[in-house]
Amino acid sequence: MTLRIMVDGYGHLSMRKEAGQHIYTSHVTMTHNLITVLSITDDHDPQFDNLVRELLLCLRPLDFKPMESFHVSLSRTVSLRHHWIQSLTDSLQAKARNLHKCYCEMLSVKLYTNDEKARTFVAVEVQSHPDVLRDYVQAVDICLQEFGLQKYYKDPSFHLSVGWCVGNALSDVTGAQRQQLQAVLDEHLHTDPDLKLIHVDQIRCKAGNKSFTFSLGT
To answer: Average pLDDT for residues 192-199, to the nearest whole number?
Structure first.
């Protein structure tokens, strides 16, 4: 399974998945001066979609819905002026040359809320070996700080969000449900080991109707 890290036109870095001859990518509607941050996206893979469906079934009767695109955030959502986009992409291109390609590994199922506690997310925790994801975050932080924008969390928990519901539902998910979520993930990764590893080798920046692709150095 291959994923491309991308940054969309407002600062959202993401990844797309390539399977055989098929390339799956998500589309982001741009809002004036809005930058959405680094993420891994993984759309329309039948095996992964099956995993997501089973995970959300574990959470019934809670009303969790699948994400429109699956992503691992590597920066916050920040506001960026349109005329900064070229400078941002130039900085990202320079940083990408010195970043290493890597594999991310799916580990466990976790639950999160956003900062406002307005939504709850079910997600699969991921990590890279070595911890290259932190190198990506540091590089993106440096690029964003050139514009006085906020850095990412100091100790991030990297995770691939797969579903969401309205409100803070952390206390509504039972211990039995949490165990079942992990059992479902373990079973899928055992049955299909290709799901476990995510290959990362590019940064792609999408700005309006333009896109920029930066290969990672080594």
So the answer is: 88
